[in-house]
Structures
1.
Amino acid sequence: MTVCPCGSNQHYADCCGKFIEGGVIASTAEALMRSRYTAFVTRHLDHIERTHAPEIREDFNRAEAERMAEECEWKGLEIRNVSENGDNAEIEFVIRFRRDKQDMIQLERSSFRRDDGQWLYVSGEINPQGPQRFVNKVGRNDPCPCGSGKKAKKCCGTTTVLD
C-alpha cells in the first residue's frame, strides 16, 4: 500500500491520487490543498497548474515548480486552520522539507475559491508571521521550531532533528 504523502494515512489512490490522476474534483478546499502538496511530492505539476484560478494560471512558473519539486525532500504537511465561507476558503498550513542539506519549515496561508463546483487556488502568503527558518538541532524540551508554543517532543519531534 502506498500511503498518501498528504498525511491522511490513506492509500494514495483513495486520497489525493483520485484528484491528481483520476479526474475527480476535490469536494473541499482542504482536499484540494492536500492534493496540491501531494502533487509537488509526486511531481505531478500539471495538477498544480490546472488547479490555479484562471486569472493567475499564466503566472504559474513551471520551471521554478519543477526545480523546487526536484531539489526538495518533502517531510510532511500539517494543516493548522481551515476556514470555509461558502465558495471561499482560507487554509493555514505548515510544510516541512529538506533543501540544500537544511531542514526547513514553511508556514503558508492560502486562499481558495469554488467556481462551478470546483475548488481553485487563488493566492498564497508564505510565512505570514515571519521569515522561513533554518531548523537547528532542537532539544526535546525546547519549544518546537514550528512556532506552535508546544515542546518539540509533543509537536513536530518526529519530523524535527532532536538532540
Note: The two ends are 32 Å apart (CA to CA).
2.
Amino acid sequence: MTVSSSSRRFIPWFALAFALALLLRLLRLGELPLSDAEANWALQALGLLRSQPVTLGTQPLYVHLTASLFFIFQASNAAARLVSALAGSGLVLAPLLFADKLGQKAALFLTFFLALDPGLLALSREAGSPILTMTLTALVWGLWRNNRVEWAGICVGWMLLSGPALWPGLLALAVSYGLTRGIVPADDFRLEASSLRRAAFYAIGAYLAFGSFFLLSPGGLGAIFRFSLDDFWTPGALPPLVMLTTPFIYQPLAIIFGLIAAVRGALKRDALTLFLTFWFFAALILSLAPPARPIGGLAWALIPLWTLAALELQHLLIPAQAGRNETLAMTVLTLLLLTFAALALTAVALGKMDPPSAQMYTLVALAAVLMLAVGAALVAQGWNTAVAWQGTLWGGLGFLAVYSLSIALFAANLKPHATVEFWRPGAQVTQADALQRQMNDLSLRHTGTSQSLKVILVGMNSSTTSNAPAALRWLLRAWDVTVAADFVPNSTSNLFITSEGFSAPQLESAYRGADFRWYSYPGWEQASAADWMTWLVEHSLPSGEENIILWARTDLFSNESNP
C-alpha cells in the first residue's frame, strides 16, 4: 500500500487515534481481577511457561503469545490482557487499508470511532476476548485487497488459531457479500490462483509455526478442529432484550448516523453501503440467535455500523455554508440545551426526589428539547437554513461525542469504582486483592516472606486443583496449593480456603475465619425500572454475591504466635 501525497496530511491524525487507543487500552489494565474465563486462558499460558502438562483450548495463538509475555515480563493481570490490548489497538489502524474505498475522511473518522468505541474498548481489556480474531480478520481482508499477499497469508494462519469467534464472523461476511452480489455487481474482492497459492503457503507456515509454538507446544495445531456446542447452547448471562438494546445505549452516535447511511445507500443501490448494512444485520442476528448469546459476537456488528456512520459523516461534516459565527452560536445553543436536558433527566434517574419533583424535572428536560427544535426552526425560517442545520448537527455531534467518551470509560472500567457493564455480563471477581493482602500479611508474620504458607482448598466442589475456580487458582499461582475433599487438620495446614456453605467443627475451633466476597452476579433479570434508571447514570445494579472464607491457624496471629 502506497501513501499518496494528499493522504500524508492525515497521517498525524491516524497516529493520534492509535496513540489514544493504546492509552485507553493500557491504562490501569491489570487493576480488575481476572474473571474465571480470563483466568482459564492465563493459566494455560502459565502452565506452558512452567512446562506443566496443559490441554490447550480453542485459542492457542493467544495462549502462546501470552506465555511469551509471561516469560519476558512476569505473570500478572496486565500481562494476561496485553495481547488483547495490543490487538484492539491494531484494529484501529485497519481503516488505513481501506482508505481508497472509504475515502480519507471516512477512514479517519472510522479510526477514531474504533479507538473510542465502548464495546471494542471493553473487549480489548479482556483476556481471551474475540478482539484478536476481529483484528486479524480485518488485516487479512485489507492486506489482500492491497496486494500484500504474503502478509495476508500469515494473518490467515494466525486467524485460524485465534478462536471459534472466527466462524460467526466469517459467516456474517459471507452472507452479506452474497446478498450484495445478488443486488448489484461487486468487484472489490479478487481471487487469483497464483496469489491464493502463495498466500496458502504462508498461511500453512504461520499456522504450523505459531500453532506448535515453534514445536514447543504442538497441542495447539488441533485448535481449528476443537469445537464445543456448549459454547453456543449454554444460556448466556445477558437477557436477549438487554443485549438487543446494547448498541442503542453504548453506540447511539453509530446507530443514528449508521442507519441514516443505510437508508441513503439502499435508495441509491450503493454496493458498499448495502454490503455494510447486510453485514451489520447478519452479525446482529448471529449474535442474538444462539442461546449462549456471547456478547463478544455483538462486536462483529460494530465494525460495519461505525463504517456506515463514518461514511455518512464524511458527507455531512463540511465547512460552514453560511455565516461561521452564526453557525457556531447555533452549535453552542444546541450543546447547552441538550446538556441541560441531560442533567435534568440524570437527576430524575438517580431517584432521589419525590414524584412531583421528578415529574417537574422531566418536563423541564422535554421543554429544553422543544426549545431547541423551535429555535432551530426559527433560525431556518428567519435567518438561514444552513446555519440552523449545521449548527444543530455540530452541537448534536458534540453532545453525542461527550456521551460516547463517558460511557466508554464506564465500559473499560476506568471510573474510580468498578461498574456493571453489558460487555462484562457474567460473574465478576471482586475482593481478590483483599484476600491476597490478608494472606500475604499472615505469611509475613509467620515466615518473614510473602506467599510462603501452604494453602488448602476445601469444599470447592472439586477434588483436584485443576478443577478449582480458575480465578482463585490464578490468584494463588505463586502459593503452594492443594485441594482436599474434606478438612483434615495437621501441623502444616496453615491456611484453608472454603466455600461459604462448608462446615467443619474442628476447623472452626482451631482456625480463625474471615469471609471475602468472591463473585458478584449482576441482577440482569431481577432489575426493576428504577434500578435500570440508576444504572443509566451510575452503571450500578443490585447484584447477588458468593463468598469464600479464609481460615488461618490461630498461632499465625501475632498476639498468639511464639517468637
Note: The chain has a mean pLDDT of 88.
3.
Amino acid sequence: MDPETHHSKLKKYYKTLFPIETLVSYYTCSNTAPLSHREFSFTRGDIYMRYKSFQDCASLKKSLLQIIPHKIDIGAIYNQDPSYKSSDLSPIEKEFCVDIDISDYDDIRTCCKGASLCHKCWPLMHSAIDILNFAFREWFAFESILWVFSGRRGIHGWVNDERVIRYNHQERSAVAEFIHLYASNQNNKSKIHLSKPHPMFDMDSPLFAIAEKWFIRIAHDLDWIHNQHICQFISDEEIRQMVSTLIEESQVSSVEMLWDAIKDLLLDQKKVKSGGRTLIHEIVYTFVYPRLDINVSKQTHHLLKSPFVVHPKTGLVCMAIPDDEVLRFDPDSAPSLDKLLDKDPEAMSIFERSVQTFEKHATRSSVARKE
C-alpha cells in the first residue's frame, strides 16, 4: 500500500473506529491525575514526537486527525503536564507492562525466524501468558491483567491494579527480576538462570506443571525431542551424549513417553551424579519460559504501543485479547485496517469484542479504586 493511501485510511480509522473514549477511560482510571499528565508519543514516518499531552478526548482526537500518526505509544502519568518538559518532571504512575516478541525464540523455533510466525510456534506466546498469569496472580496477587496482540509478532501485558501502577522503579525492578529467567547473552548452552532458590524450581510446583505441559505440547509440532534439538542446550558433554543415545535408540514415538524416559535418565543418580533435576528445569524453561524485554517492565518512563493502533507493516490492529481467549488466540484472526473500513462482519465482531474487553478492564479497575 502506498503511503498516501495508508495515510487516508488511517485518518478514516481514527475518525470513525478508533476507541478514544475507551482508551482515555483506561489511561485515567487511577483517578489521581488528569489525562493531561499522561504522556503520549506519536510517530509518523521518521518523525518521533514524545511528551505529548491532551486535556480530554476531544483534544486527543483533534491531534490524531491532524497528525495521523502511524504509531501511538503510551508513557507514564507524570507529576505535571509532560509537554512542559520541566526539569522536575517525574513519572509517578504507570501500568506494570511486559513485552514479548516471538523473534526472541528463534534459537528454539524450527519452523519460522524473525518476524514470521505460524500455528506451530505461536503457542510459545500462549505458554508465556499461561505462566505469567499464574505468577502474577499467585505470587503477586495481581488482578487486572490485560493481554494485547502487538499487531505483528508478539504480545503485551498490562497490569493496572491500583497498588501496582504506583510501583516505583525499585519495586518494578524487583518484580521483573523475580520473573525474568532468560538471559540471551549467556555464554553457556542453557539460557536460564537457576542459581538462586526460587519457587518455580520445584518440580512439584504448579508453575513447572504449566511449563512442562506447554513444553510437551509444542515439542510435538516443533520436534524438539526426536530431532535432538534439546541436546543443544545441555552443557555437560557426557550427559548430552547419554540423552542423545537414549533418543537415537528409543523406539518410542510418543513425545510425552520419550520425555519421561529422558527425565528418568536425568534423575538416575547412578548415571547422572548430580544436577539432573536442575537440568530438567533448564531444558523446559529454556524452551517455553517467557522471554521478556525486561526494561519495558522495570522502567516507569518506558513507552509501550497503545492498543488499537494499526501496525504499519502488517495492517493488523494491536488488539486487546478477550480474557477467555488468551490461551487460544490466533493472530491470523486479528482484524485488519482494510477489513474494518470495509465493515467486514467477522472483523467488526472481533474488533468490538476487543474494545469491550479493554473497557471491562478500565471499568473494573475504576470500580476497585472507589471501593
Note: Residues 345-370 form the longest helix (26 residues).
4.
Amino acid sequence: MKLLACLLILTGSAGIFSAEAADPYPDQIKPLLRERCYACHGALKQKSGLRLDTVERILDGTTTEELLARISTTDLDERMPPEGEPVTPEQIAAVKKWIAAGTPKIAGEVGDDDPDAHWAFQKIERPLVPKSSFENPIDAFLEAKRVAKNLETQPEAERGILLRRVYIDLTGLPPTLEQLADDRPYEQIVDELLASPQHGERWARHWMDVWRYSDWYGLGAQLRNSQKHLWHWRDWIVESLNEDKGYDQMIHEMMAGDELAPTDPDTLRATGFLARNYFLFNRTTWLDDTIEHTGKAFLGLTLNCAKCHDHKYDPITHEDYYRFRAIFEPHQIRLDPVPGETNFEKNGLPRAFDDHIGAVTFLHKKGDPKNPDEAIKITPGVPVLFSKFESKPEPIDLPPFAWAPGSRESVQKDWLAAAEKKIPVAEKELAAARKKLAEAPPEPEPGSAPAKTDPFSLTDDFSKLNPKIWEVVGDGWKFEDGHAKQTKSTRDTEFLKTKQPIPRNFEARCRYTLTGGATYKSVTFRFDLGDDLKFTNYVYTSGHQAGKVQAAYSRDGNASYPAEGRKTRKFEVGETVEIRFAVRDRLVNVWINDEFSISYE
C-alpha cells in the first residue's frame, strides 16, 4: 500500500481549521498538504509513487482510511508527517469532515507544474521582434513592455550626460574634457569605446567576479589554493572580450581548452577557470568547488544542494551531482613552462589536463566521502533534466607533450640554454678550486704521525636529563618513568637543544612514540639553527590527516615546505617510530624505520 509521507513543518495556530467550514479542503487541508507534504509528495518528488497536490491524485495514490490513520497514530514509526510537530486535533477533525463529505473534488483543480517544465530548462527559441520604431531589437522588446504597462520613455539625455554614461559603462573611466567636446556621431564614439583595450579590462572585472578569479595563496612558498601565475587566465578574459569572442566559445575554452587546442598556449590559458579551484589538502573539497561554481556560473543552478540529497527545489537528484562530478574526476592541474623561462617560481602557465582517464566516481552517501556507495555505478553526464541537450562524448587524440610538456622542443632548448649558462660559472669555480689546491701545503711526509681529531658523537637514552648534553628551553619537557616527555605542543618556545655545536655534516637517529599533540601532531628535529630562530633547517613528521615526513626550512622567519621534500606517510598516535636522517652539505636524506623516505637538497 502506498504511504503518505509529509516532511515540512507548518507553524500555524491550533485553530487554523474551522469545524463549521462547508468544505475545508480549499482553505484548510490543501494549505496543510502544501506546507507539510509536498516536499516528498509533490511535483518535484513522489515518494512511494504518491502525489498529493490535487484531490484526484490523493485518491489515486491512497485511501481515506489510510490517510486518516497515518496522521492520527501516535506510533512514531507510522506517523505522518514523520518529522516536526504532529497534526493537531483540529486539523484531524477537518480531515474527518472532508472525508465524511465524500472528499469532494474542486472543479478544474490543477496541480503544481513539473519543475523540469520550467521555461529555464527548455530549448531557447528566437521570438518574433515586435513592430517598433526602434531599429535595435532590444529597444523593440523594451518598448512593447512599456506600452503594455502604459509607461512612457524619458526624453534622450543631453549629449554630455550621454557621453559620460557610455564612457563609464563601456570603459569604467569618466570622459576627459576633450572627449566631452568630441562632436563626432554618437555611434562612432560607441564603436571606438567598444574597440578600446579599456573595454575588455572594465568588463573582465565583472566576469572575473562571476568566475571567482583569485590569485594563489598558501604558506610560505607552498601553494595551497588556486594557482601561481593565474594572471594568464585573467589576461585571456580581457583579450577574449576585446576580441569579441562569443560567450559560448569562451565557455568551451574554459572547460575544455586542453582538448580543443592542446598545442595553443593562448587557448590553454582559459583552463585557469578549472585551475582556480585547486585545493592542496582535499580532493573532494576541490571537486565540490568545481561543481558548485561551474553550475552557478554557466547553468544558474545550485548543483551543490544535491551533494547530500536530492535538490529540494530544482529537479536535480543526488545521483545527478555525482554524474556531474564524474566529468571532472580525471582532471588535474599543473604549471607548463613558458618560452624563455625554466623557473616556475618566476613564471609558468597554469592549466588543466587529463591525468587519470580511468578515474572512478562513487556516490557519497549523505555527501560523506568516507561512506561511498560502491553498488551504484556512476557514469559521467549532465543532470538528467539536461539530457535532451547532451551530446555524445567522443574520444580524441592528443599530442605526446599534452601529458609530457618537457618533451616540447622549445622547452628542451630553454633547459639546454639554462644549463649552458652554468658552464662558465662552473669552469670558474673549478679553476679557483684547482688554484687553491695548488697553493695548499704539501701532504705530510710518509711516516709522520697524522693529526688526531676526535669525531663528534652524541648518544643519550633519555632515561634522565643529562645537563652536559641538553639545554631545556621552556618548561614543556619532563624526564620521568625513564623517558623524555613533551607536555606542551609547541616547537618555538619549548624544546631540547644540544649544548655542543653540531658539525655541518652529520647523521642522527632517534626513536620516539607519538602520544598526541595539537592539530598537526608533529615531531621536529632542527639543525643549522640561528640564535633568533629565524634561520633554520629541519626535518619533521606529522600525524595530521594523511600524515607526512617533510624536509623544510625557515629564512627570516618565513617557513617553506617544498613539495619535493615531502612524502605522504601515516603516523598513528601510539606508534613508535625510528627516524634517521643524514646531512651532507645541502643534501638531507631521511629514513623512517630503516625505509628510505626522502632526499632533498
Note: The chain is about 30% helix and 15% strand.
